[in-house]
Design a protein that fits this description.
With 221 residues, the protein is mainly alpha-helical. It contains 11 helices and no strands. Helix 8 packs parallel to helix 11 and helix 10 runs antiparallel to helix 11.
């Protein structure tokens, strides 16, 4: 800390004396010659005369005196930035530029669901749940609905979501909550359907959906 203060003071002193030296070098002793003194005779240096001269100079300004080089330089920079932006847009793609939150998965398969689960906090799980239901992919819809429940628990600070946590971890974290038994039951249903690879028809799915939906509403109260 002391060494830093020393360097700061040393830098300030060098700057101070350096500026004085430059000022002294730029100061030139000048003595007007007799011819210049004689030439100045008869010139009126009064305030009125000086103001009148400045007024005439202002009135004599012409738009042609405007320097367009600075404006052209700014326009050139803006043009280059626009070209670079367009190249990034078409090469990288709109979705990569905006970020993962704007991406939408078109085909819901096992790989897509795993991607959603890995980035759960930034994914619109409800959107994909509706997509799976509309496509009659009921097993995937049940998994997505369970993921939505996990996300709601995390958003409401009932659990701390992490990629490497298991369902057992979440059951333990919610054991003291009023809806703990419903969550345990929903977890059991999800695991039997998903890991037990059970086929799910429309009527079975409706019952499971209603149970998951009731639990979700208790979480967000």
């Amino acid at each position: 800390m002391k060494r830093n203060k020393f360097y700061i003071w040393f830098f300030m002193i060098v700057c101070f004396y350096g500026s004085n030296i430059l000022a002294q070098e730029n100061t030139v002793s000048y003595t007007p010659s007799e011819e210049l003194i004689s030439a100045r005779d008869g010139i009126d240096y009064s305030d009125d005369v000086i103001k009148e001269k400045e007024k005439k100079e202002t009135e004599s300004y012409s738009p042609s005196d405007f320097n367009f080089s600075d404006v052209l330089g700014v326009l050139l920079i803006l043009l280059l930035l626009g070209v670079v932006g367009a190249i990034l847009y078409f090469v990288i793609g709109k979705e990569n530029l905006i970020g993962p939150k704007s991406r939408k998965i078109k085909d819901l398969d096992l790989k897509a669901v795993e991607h959603i689960e890995e980035d759960l906090e930034n994914q619109d799980v409800a959107y994909y749940l509706n997509q799976a239901i509309n496509e009659n992919q009921y097993r995937i819809a049940i998994r997505l609905h369970y993921l939505l429940i996990i996300k709601k628990l995390s958003e409401n600070k009932f659990i701390k979501w992490k990629k490497d946590k298991t369902n057992r971890d979440y059951i333990l974290e919610t054991s003291s909550l009023p809806f703990s038994e419903k969550f345990r039951s929903s977890t059991s249903i999800f695991e039997k359907v998903w890991y037990g690879e059970r086929s799910v028809g429309e009527s079975d799915f409706k019952q499971i959906y209603d149970q998951f939906d009731a639990l979700e509403k208790k979480i967000i109260k």
